[in-house]
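Predict the 3D structure for this chain.
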Amino acid sequence: MLRKADNWHPDSTVIIGEPQSETIDFETLLAAARRQLRFVFTCAMGGLLLGLAYLQAEVPLYRSTTRILIDKNQPPVVMQLMENGTSTQLNPMMVSQVELLRSDRIGLKVVDSLGLAADQSFLSAPYSLLVGLKRSVIELVQSSISSSEETAPSVKSAGPGGPDRRRQAFGILAENLVVNRVGDSYILQIDFWSPNPEMAQKIAGKYADIYLSDQLVAKNEAITRARSALMEELEDVRKRSVEAELAVHKFRSDNALTNVRLVTTLRQLELDASSLKSQYQQLLEHYQATLQNQSLALTEARVISQAPLPGTPSFPSNSLTLAICVALGGLVGTGLAGVREYRERFFRTSSQVRNELGLETLGMIPLLEGKPVRREKRDGTAGNPSFIEVANSAYNWVEQNRRSEFAEAMRTVKVAVDVELQGKTTKTIGVVSCLPGEGKSLVSSNLAIMLAMQRHTTMLIDADIHNPGLSPMLASGWERGFAEMLAGDFNPGDLLVHQSLPLVFLPGANRNQQTLPRPVQSIESTAEFLFDVGAKFNYVVVDLPPIAPVADARSLAQHLDAVVLVIEWGSTARQFVRESVDNNLFLRDKCIGVLLNKVDMKKIKRYQKFGSAEFYSSRYSQYYQG
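Done. Predicted structure below.
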C-alpha cells in the first residue's frame, strides 16, 4: 500500500519492527562525511591562510646552543676538597647547576659583561608578535597615565646603565634563556633565542664563559678556605709537637731514670712527640700539594660545544606552523560540521520521509534549470478571460519538458492515485503544503497539465482563497471563481479553458475584491460542487491552502479522494511537518504520498547512504534528458 508504512506508529520517529541496532551506523557517518567534507576542507584552508598570515606577522627567532660538561674525573687532591655528598648525589647536583645558570648571579654578570643594559636595540627588540603587542599596550597605558599626572612630582629616571635597565635586560634574558640537562648525562645545554642571530650567539657563549669563570672563582675560594684551615691545623700540630719534644728533654734532665715508673713515663712522652711529629709531616705534605694545585685553574665544568652563529630562524617553523594551523582548522571545521549535522532537521531523503511521517515519497522535483520565463503581470483587472494563459513557464514545465524528472514525478503521482482509487470514475486530488512558498501551486498546475496531456479530462481548482497562487499565473484578469462557488453563485462561464488540452481551470478569489461573499465560511458546499460539476471530469486537481496558517485545508480535505503533500527540500523542519500532519486526521488518512520539491540534484547524493536508490540517481539521469 502506497499510503503509509504498515509498521509506522504516529508517536514514533522510526518504523516499528525494524531492528534497532545499538552499533554505530557507519553508512550514516560516511554520508555525513561526504556532506561536510567540503566545509571541513574550507575550514582547513582557512587555518592555512591564518597560518600564512601569522608567519608573515611573527618575528623570526634564532637559537644558538652551547653545551657544558660537568667533569667529575678530577685529580684526587681536588676531589678531596669537594663538599661531601656531591659525587654521590648526581641529580640534586645537576639540578643545582641548572638553577645556578638561571640565577641572577650569572644573568646580571652577562648583562654587565655585554653592556646589555645600555643596548637599546636589545631592550626594545620584539621577541614575538604577542610580546610586541603586549609591550605596545603597556607603553600606551603608561604614556596616558604619565600625561594625566602632570602635577605629580618628577622622579629621576635611571640612566643608561641604571638598576632598572639592568633588571629589564636580565628579565629579557630570563624569558629567552633555556637551560636543560641532556638526558641523564653530565651535560648541560644552554639555548638562547633572539631576533638577532649575532646576539643569540654572543649571549649563549657569554653564559658559558661566565658560568665557567664563576665555577673557577668558587673553586679557588674553596681551596683558599681549605688552605687557611690547613695552615691553622698545621700550626697547632707544630706547636704541640714542639711542646712534646721539650717535655721529653726536660723530663730526662730532671730525673735520673732509675725508677721503672719514670722510664715508662718517658717512653710515653717520646711516643706522643713522635706521633705529633708524624701528623705534622702529613699535614705539611697536604698543604704543599694544595699550594701546587691552586695554581692550576681546574674546574668541574668545561665547554664541549661552542655556540654557533645560527643561519636560519629556529622559530617559527614554517612547515610545522602551517601543519598545526591546517590541523586546527580541520578540527574546528569538524566540530562545526558536527554542529551543522546536529542542526540538520529538514527532509533530505525518502527514508527520512518514511521514518518521520510513515508516508512514501512519490518523487523528487529538482530545482528548475534556467530561469522560468515570466510574461506580463497578472493583476486581476484585465477583463473577463475565457482561456488559460500561462504567465510563467514553470507552471507548464511538464508540457515543455516531457522527459524531465519533474514530468516523471507527476506521472508517479498519477500511478499512485490510480492504484489507490481503483474503480472510481472521477478522482479528486488535493495538493497541499505545510507552509506557503513550498511549491504546491506549481505542482498542482503541472499535475493537471500532465493529466490533460494524457487526454484525461481534467479540472484544476485554485482553492486558496486567502492567497491564490495559481490564478495570477493562469488567468488574465479574472473576477469570479472559487469564492463565488462557495457562496452558491457558480457560473459555468467562470471556468477557463485550455486551448489545446482537455483542461479547465476555476480561479480563486480575486485579490482586488474588498470583501468576499458571506457564505465563504461554508466549505461544505464544495462537496456538492465536486459531485455535480466535478463528476464530468476524469480528474479534479485542487490547489489547497497551506495547513499551518488557515483551517480551510482541513475542511476541504474530507471532500477529496486523495491528498499529495508537497515539502520543500532542505527548508521545512521535520518536526513541524510531522506535527502538522498528525494534527490533521483527514489529511493523514487521505495522503497517498509526499513530493519533495526544489531538490538540488547535485547535493542529494551527499545525503544518501551507499546502495540507496537516490545514490545511483546519476546512473539513470539520461532517461530524463530531452
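DSSP finds 20 helices and twelve strands in the chain.
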